[in-house]
Amino acid sequence: MPAKFFCYVDESGQDMRGELFIVSVVISDHEADQLRQICEDIERDSHKGQRKWVKTAYERRLAYMQQVVSHPIFAGKLNFAIYRNSLDYSAMTVQTIGRALSAASETDYKATVFIDGLPRSLEQVVGVQLRQQGINAKKVRGVKKDENEALIRLADAVCGLVRGAFEGQPAMRALFEQGLRAGALRDLSLK
């Protein structure tokens, strides 16, 4: 029986016109509900709440991500890839999803993919692109910006952390490096 994966995807950097583009993929299997509950608890404890990364005070961002990267349940679940000098956002997003599923080390799986802000009109298109890359995407769904999904907000926060680290914010850089060392963050960028 194939494994079931759930991927929660967000991106950052379209505003930079290809100079820097970051895709994050939170991947889970049977423990998606547990991950969601832990994220909601951390959102409450850190006072980040259900706000998106850019609408959250800096200190609350730090408190939120500190708890996330320190929690052992997130080991191997928070994936990201950094791209430079390209405007092919869709292809980069599809590649990152594929790499995240490959890194989960399962060969027989079915994935349900949730992508922040993906219009309904593009769900089928992205599903076809994923399958053309050999990704067994059972379902692709866009998540509306105002929908209440803690794991999409986590993917948003991972993008924010990575972007902050690469823009030279010292506290974000330190947290980013801590997350890599702890195994919470997995860099899927091509070197």
Structure characterization notes:
45% of the residues lie in helices and 22% in strands. It contains 6 helices and 6 strands; from the N terminus they run ββααβαβαβααβ. It has helices at 32-46, 58-70, 89-103, 120-132, 150-166, 170-182, and strands at residues 3-12, 21-28, 78-83, 109-116, 137-143, 185-187. α2 packs parallel to α6 (170-182). It is globular. The chain starts with a strand and ends with a strand. The mean pLDDT is 92.
Task: Draw up the topology in text.
Elements: E1 3-12, E2 21-28, H1 32-46, H2 58-70, E3 78-83, H3 89-103, E4 109-116, H4 120-132, E5 137-143, H5 150-166, H6 170-182, E6 185-187
Parallel strand pairs: 1-4, 3-6, 4-5
Antiparallel strand pairs: 1-2, 2-3
Helix pairs in contact: 1-2, 2-6, 5-6
Features:
single chain, 191 residues, alpha/beta, 6-stranded mixed beta sheet
In CATH, the topology is named: Nucleotidyltransferase, domain 5
Q: How much is the radius of gyration in Å?
A: 15 Å
Oligomeric state as shown: single chain
Estimate the helix proportion, in percent. Answer: 40-55%
Secondary structural class: alpha/beta
Name of the top-level CATH class: Alpha Beta
Find the count of extended strands (DSSP E, 2+ residues): 6
Q: What is the CATH architecture assignment?
A: 2-Layer Sandwich
Strand order of the largest sheet: 5-4-1-2-3-6
Described by strand count, sense and barrel closure, the largest sheet is:
6 strands, mixed
- Low-pLDDT segments: none
Count the helices. How many? 6
Question: What do the pLDDT scores average to?
Answer: 92
N-to-C terminal Cα separation, in Å? 34 Å
**Number of domain units:** 1
User: What is the molecular shape?
Assistant: globular
